[in-house]
Amino acid sequence: xxxxxPKRVVKRILIVEDEPLVAFDMETMLADExxxxxxxxxxxxxxxxxLDREQVDLVLCDVRLHGDRTGIQLAKEACERSIGDxxxxxxxQHADPQGGAGKHQSALAGQKx
Length: 113
Fold this sequence. Notes:
- By secondary structure, the chain is of the alpha/beta class.
- The protein is 29% helix and 24% strand.
- The protein has a three-stranded parallel β-sheet, with helices on both faces. A two-stranded antiparallel sheet has the order 4-5.
- A hairpin with an 8-residue loop joins strand 4 and strand 5 (103-108).
- 21% of the residues are buried.
- Mean pLDDT is 76; it is low at 87-93 and 100-113.
């Protein structure tokens, strides 16, 4: 068909967010758009457990997580666990803690941001 929708490559999404309201909003919005939210977790270790047992197409992750591991580290781990075959790099965005407009970083898997 000439004007058909492109095939959706991303279907199953893992949300890693330690703010409950933000996590709920993301989960609701994605489900409303037809995506399957595999899990919503708030810790690095929980996200790794999901990645090890579930097929995940995309990880939406907060940069700052509770504990000593970051969302950037999680993105690199996700790439090493098969996500990287489909998503070779990550775009990481976070709000400036001083209330600024925000900072944007891009990191290739295996490289420091």
